[in-house]
């Protein structure tokens, strides 16, 4: 097992497109790490550069103590699972799983035995004679995982591991992958554009945009305290409300036609008259049918049923709209008046796109115990009363 | 008024369509009837008619040494060219598909254009002179090399399209496991593009099997002549075409390509698998 | 969320967002086919290319260049110029351009290409593909196999079949039409080889158009039908715009093939009296028949030029299609917009 250290890693494509800007990042030993970002942000390029499928233009990649920057992919002791699984269509499942061993010149009998054992472990036992085309999406994914596991690599790399599954399978596979990674304890980096996937599976994650790391941290940190408006709007299944506001002395902010108290974290860091952006997740707004203190008021325009709750869009008096997650205790109707009270310890202020906070509190370096495999247990959003959106 | 709502014009159109289809069937079938009838006719003329059934023509053909030998020659030329064309075009198409080379498309188009012109009559004099220079006259190898050179551009063109549509992740996956490029090619690329290789192989065999000009030009000794050339040697003592031999030989000569076509169309469905770019 | 100040536009994480992201990825992969997935490297790629290029250079490019050179000499099959050809520059070319035989041959070739390929093969091929589009069954299979047979039989065999079919005394056609003694190859030689070539080559157009029609989504035709379009209107508004690229490719290929086709010689030997002497036959007769190798090579060069012009026109048209394909998309109806981006790749 090994950690992965990137040092000023850069990738420039011929033609001058900079895909990665001097990245520094450490993925710890045994960690389940997500690279998250919109398409074109460079997350796949980063993964492929770690794999060696793309040559770095500058900087270094270390796996464990070894500098692998100049090594061929096959020499890096890694295994990669591709988005489309890349199972060879002309080989049976067993031959596919045994292929890495065949390349490493393991004897026929031994590799067949190993392949079968790995297949058994992943519940593919009865399917080893089949061809990939005869497997379901989930089975194909497990076959690809088995093939990656068979050669006992020091690092796993997954490129969009769930995106080829249908919605139902995706939830199942998510749990399965997380459990498997924990059991194997192999350092794993995966790429996804789905924030829910990253939050649910990763021990830690990095949010990327335009070839740069915007925030690195545990899912809880990134969800609760996004370092920038970009991260704030990217994370969360219902995007965070980000509303223009102005700090009004003393300790209050005018937002959407209402006066709200300054968020706890930013209270001492702002001056009156400052233009800011007020951020609050729909989950952290409390609904009120009657006028309330420290609330934004508005008229209900849309009600979307989320099952156990509703997502209500409130057209506020300031001409902006705010979304609120409303529990099933209330049943607002379009046209009703409504009030949304923010949870002050969850509200955030952004200045020039960046979080207003004590220096360093949003940075990953502060938190996140990292003592080998399984460290993610304590980091999970278990201590969070609010459900992590899925 | 919409035609679909009125049954009478619809019926007429239906009948019209079937009449046209019947005409098309006749158009394509009639010239071939002779090939089906004459070989079994004791006294074949040029008319396709119910034969005065006999197998004697086949016996005569069997006793004609040129006929049997020429089919063997055709086979050598076709298989030899197919092996060369498939092997070389696969390597070239793979390299062109995976490594950026400037001016690649222009080059391919130029070669394709050239091949459709030069393999015809236009360059037959230089081809003969060249073969003479290289000591390739009257050798199978000479014919195979000339035909291969002419067929390669189109073969590369077709195969490159197959290669382009093959997911890169297969190769990358094998590469991450430590397979060398040649190994990736052999273990992964070749099996995956097998339908493309088969298409090119079949196409090459059909082209060479029917080629008249190049072997006619380059093979001097009669015992090496392939079937396409030997067909023109079947004359009766009176100088008239020997219809019995010609028709019977035509049938035997056509049979392999027809069988190959039927086999391929059963197996793969004789379609364009994106082999032609539009 | 009207007041979102975030400058970035995060893609929503719903299933739709994922789908488009995936598609984008796939498109990216296809736009970069050069991605060196197997780690080939330039040197190995060059080694992979070398044998094929060597053969092509030696047996294709060299003869072509040689033809150019010969075209500038008075090289002959026999006599003194056979041993020591003299350089005559453009004399052969000017001679050809001033020769009625050349122009007549070119005219015949154009008639042959237009009649048998551009109109005949493409038209019949499309009709066959259109008819077979949604049909299965024995009738369709029979017709398809017959059309394909005409295409794959060796040309020597096919030439004999047509000579027999059109024979003056007892040919199958005369028997059928009850016109004994009608000498088709003598009285209507061009018509005969045009019809022959339609018979011979329609299969290719049929296959290519079948593949193209398979790419026209049924929903587009259904939309047109719901809007009340008749059969011809559907063809014009929905089918043709979509398969335009295939049509152009097909026309180019069959034109070039027909242009350079030598098989008419096997049927009519260019006769009677030069009535079917297309350019390839003309060259053959000039170079080998009269032994004027240099002059023949010069005509070959002219033929090569004409081929080039045809190809360039085609590539231009194709390029225009690509440009107008993106510019004109907006003006088209919504149903096309939905599939618009995928269209170019599919084609």
Automatic annotation (TrEMBL), chain A:
User: What domain of life?
Assistant: Bacteria
Give the matching Gene3D superfamilies.
Answer: 2.40.50.100, Nucleic acid-binding proteins (2.40.50.140), P-loop containing nucleotide triphosphate hydrolases (3.40.50.300)
List, alphabetically, the InterPro entries matched.
AAA+_ATPase (IPR003593), ABC_transporter-like_ATP-bd (IPR003439), ABC_transporter-like_CS (IPR017871), ABC_transpr_FbpC (IPR015853), ABC_transpr_MalK/UgpC-like (IPR047641), Mo/tungstate-bd_C_term_dom (IPR008995), NA-bd_OB-fold (IPR012340), P-loop_NTPase (IPR027417)
Positions of the UniProt region annotated as Disordered: 355-390
Name the UniProt key words of this record, in alphabetical order. ATP-binding, Cell membrane, Membrane, Nucleotide-binding, Translocase, Transport
Where is each ABC transporter domain found? 4-235
Record keyword Membrane present? yes
Composition bias of kind Acidic residues appears in 381-390
| CDD domains with a match to the protein in the record | ABC_Carb_Solutes_like
The protein's matches in PROSITE patterns, at most eight in alphabetical order, are given as: ABC_TRANSPORTER_1, ABC_TRANSPORTER_2
Q: Can you name this protein?
A: ABC transporter ATP-binding protein
| UniProt-recorded Gene Ontology molecular function terms | ATP binding
UniProtKB/TrEMBL annotation, chain B:
Q: Does the keyword Membrane apply?
A: yes
Q: Which domain of life is it from?
A: Bacteria
**Where does the chain cross the membrane?**
12-37, 71-95, 107-128, 140-159, 200-219, 243-264
The subcellular localization recorded is:
Cell membrane
Topologically, how does it sit relative to the membrane?
Answer: Multi-pass membrane protein
Q: Is Transport found in the keyword set?
A: yes
Question: Which CDD domains does the entry mention?
Answer: TM_PBP2 (cd06261)
- SUPFAM superfamilies annotated for this entry? MetI-like (SSF161098)
Q: What are the protein's UniProt keywords?
A: Cell membrane, Membrane, Transmembrane, Transmembrane helix, Transport
Q: Specify where it is mainly localized.
A: membrane
Identify the residues that the record assigns to the ABC transmembrane type-1 domain, covering every copy. Answer: 71-264
Family annotation (PANTHER family)? INNER MEMBRANE ABC TRANSPORTER PERMEASE PROTEIN YCJP, MALTOSE TRANSPORT SYSTEM PERMEASE-RELATED
> What family, per the record?
Belongs to the binding-protein-dependent transport system permease family.
Q: What is this protein called?
A: Carbohydrate ABC transporter permease
User: Lineage, please?
Assistant: Bacteria, Bacillati, Actinomycetota, Actinomycetes, Kitasatosporales
UniProtKB/TrEMBL annotation, chain C:
Query: InterPro entries recorded for this chain?
Result: MetI-like (IPR000515), MetI-like_sf (IPR035906)
Q: Which residues form the signal peptide?
A: none
Q: Where is the composition biased (Basic residues)?
A: 329-339
Q: Where is the ABC transmembrane type-1 domain?
A: 102-314
Main localisation, per the record? membrane
**What keywords appear on the UniProt entry?**
Cell membrane, Membrane, Transmembrane, Transmembrane helix, Transport
> Which residue ranges does UniProt annotate as crossing the membrane?
45-69, 108-131, 143-165, 181-199, 243-259, 293-315
For this entry, the protein name equals: Sugar ABC transporter permease
User: What is the superkingdom listed in this entry's lineage?
Assistant: Bacteria
Q: Which organism does this sequence originate in?
A: Streptomyces smyrnaeus
């Amino acid at each position: 097992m090994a950690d992965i250290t990137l040092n000023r890693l850069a990738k420039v494509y011929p033609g001058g497109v900079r895909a990665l800007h001097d990245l520094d990042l450490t993925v710890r030993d045994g960690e389940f790490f997500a690279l998250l970002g919109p398409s074109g942000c460079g997350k796949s390029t980063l993964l492929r550069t770690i794999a060696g499928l793309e040559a770095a233009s500058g900087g270094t990649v270390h796996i464990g103590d070894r500098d692998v920057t100049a090594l061929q992919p096959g020499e890096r002791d890694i295994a990669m699972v591709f988005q489309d699984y890349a199972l060879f269509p002309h080989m049976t499942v067993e031959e596919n799983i045994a292929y890495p061993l065949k390349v490493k010149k393991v004897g026929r009998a031994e590799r067949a035995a190993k392949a079968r054992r790995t297949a058994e472990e992943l519940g593919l036992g009865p399917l080893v004679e089949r061809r990939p085309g005869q497997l379901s999406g989930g089975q194909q994914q497990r076959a690809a995982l088995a093939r990656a596991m068979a050669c006992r690599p020091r690092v796993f790399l997954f490129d969009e591991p769930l995106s080829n599954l249908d919605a139902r399978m995706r939830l199942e596979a998510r749990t399965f992958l997380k459990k498997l990674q924990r059991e194997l304890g192999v350092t794993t980096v995966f790429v996804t554009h789905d924030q829910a996937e990253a939050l649910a599976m990763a021990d830690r994650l990095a949010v990327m945009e335009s070839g740069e790391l915007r925030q690195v941290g545990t899912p809880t940190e990134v969800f609760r305290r996004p370092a920038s408006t970009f991260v704030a709007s990217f994370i969360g299944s219902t995007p965070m409300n980000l509303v223009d506001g102005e700090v009004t002395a003393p300790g209050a902010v005018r937002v959407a036609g209402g006066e709200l108290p300054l968020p706890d974290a930013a209270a001492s860091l702002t001056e009156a008259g400052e233009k800011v952006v007020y951020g609050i997740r729909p989950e952290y707004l409390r609904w009120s049918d009657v006028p309330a203190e420290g609330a934004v008021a508005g008229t209900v325009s849309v009600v979307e049923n989320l099952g156990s709750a509703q997502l209500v869009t409130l057209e506020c008096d300031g001409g902006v709209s705010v979304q609120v997650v409303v529990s099933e205790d209330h049943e607002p109707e379009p046209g009703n008046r409504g009030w949304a009270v923010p949870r002050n310890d969850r509200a955030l202020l952004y200045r020039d796109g960046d979080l207003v906070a004590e220096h360093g509190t949003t940075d990953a370096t502060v938190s996140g115990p990292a003592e080998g495999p399984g460290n993610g247990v304590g980091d999970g959003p278990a201590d969070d009363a609010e459900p992590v959106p899925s | 008024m919409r035609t679909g709502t009125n049954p009478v014009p619809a019926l007429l159109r239906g009948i019209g369509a079937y009449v046209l289809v019947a005409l098309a069937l006749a158009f394509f079938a009639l010239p071939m009837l002779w090939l089906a009838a004459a070989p079994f006719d004791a006294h074949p003329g040029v008319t396709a008619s119910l034969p005065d059934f006999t197998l004697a023509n086949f016996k005569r053909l069997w006793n004609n040494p040129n006929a049997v030998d020429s089919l063997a020659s055709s086979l050598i030329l076709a298989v030899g060219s197919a092996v060369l064309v498939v092997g070389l075009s696969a390597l070239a198409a793979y390299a062109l598909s995976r490594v950026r080379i400037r001016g690649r498309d222009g080059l391919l188009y130029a070669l394709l254009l050239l091949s459709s012109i030069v393999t015809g009559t236009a360059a037959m004099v230089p081809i003969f002179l060249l073969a003479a220079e290289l000591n390739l006259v009257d050798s199978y190898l000479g014919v195979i090399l000339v035909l291969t050179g002419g067929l390669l551009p189109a073969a590369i063109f077709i195969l490159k399209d197959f290669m382009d549509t093959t997911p890169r992740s297969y190769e990358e996956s094998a590469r991450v496991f430590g397979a060398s490029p040649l190994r990736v090619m052999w273990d992964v690329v070749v099996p995956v593009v097998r339908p493309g290789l088969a298409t090119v192989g079949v196409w090459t065999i059909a082209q060479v099997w029917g080629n008249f000009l190049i072997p006619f030009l380059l093979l001097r000794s009669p015992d090496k002549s392939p079937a396409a050339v030997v067909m023109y040697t079947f004359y009766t003592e009176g100088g008239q075409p020997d219809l019995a031999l010609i028709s019977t030989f035509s049938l035997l000569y056509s049979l392999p390509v027809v069988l190959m076509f039927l086999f391929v169309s059963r197996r793969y469905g004789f379609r364009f698998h994106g082999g032609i770019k539009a | 969320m009207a007041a979102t100040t975030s400058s970035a536009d995060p893609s929503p994480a719903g299933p739709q967002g994922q789908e488009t992201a995936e598609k984008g990825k796939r498109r990216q992969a296809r736009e970069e086919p050069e991605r060196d997935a197997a780690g080939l490297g330039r040197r190995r790629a060059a080694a992979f290319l070398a044998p094929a290029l060597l053969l092509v250079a030696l047996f294709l490019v060299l003869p072509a260049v040689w033809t150019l050179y010969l075209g500038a000499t008075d090289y002959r099959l026999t006599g003194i110029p056979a041993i020591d050809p003299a350089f005559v520059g453009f004399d052969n070319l000017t001679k050809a351009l001033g020769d009625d035989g050349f122009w007549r041959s070119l005219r015949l070739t154009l008639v042959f290409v237009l009649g048998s390929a551009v109109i005949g093969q493409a038209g019949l091929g499309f009709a066959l593909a259109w008819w077979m589009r949604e049909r299965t069954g024995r009738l369709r299979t029979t017709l398809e196999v017959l059309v394909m047979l005409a295409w794959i039989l060796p040309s020597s065999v096919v030439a004999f079949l047509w000579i027999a079919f059109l024979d003056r005394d007892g040919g199958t056609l005369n028997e059928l039409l009850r016109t004994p003694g009608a000498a088709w190859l003598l009285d209507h030689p061009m018509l005969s080889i045009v019809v022959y070539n339609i018979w011979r080559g329609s299969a290719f157009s049929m296959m290519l158009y079948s593949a193209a029609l398979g790419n026209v989504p049924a929903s587009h035709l259904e939309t047109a039908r719901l809007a009340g379009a008749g059969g011809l209107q559907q063809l014009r508004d929905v089918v043709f715009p979509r398969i335009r690229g295939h049509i152009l490719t097909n026309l180019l290929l069959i034109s070039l093939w027909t242009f350079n086709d030598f098989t008419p010689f096997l049927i009519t030997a260019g006769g009677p009296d030069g009535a079917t002497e297309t350019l390839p036959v003309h060259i053959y007769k000039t170079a080998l028949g009269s032994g004027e190798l240099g002059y023949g090579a010069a005509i070959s060069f002219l033929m090569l030029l004409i081929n080039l012009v045809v190809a360039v026109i085609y590539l231009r048209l194709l390029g225009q299609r690509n440009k107008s394909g993106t510019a004109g998309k907006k003006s088209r109806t919504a149903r096309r917009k939905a599939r618009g981006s995928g269209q170019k790749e599919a084609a």
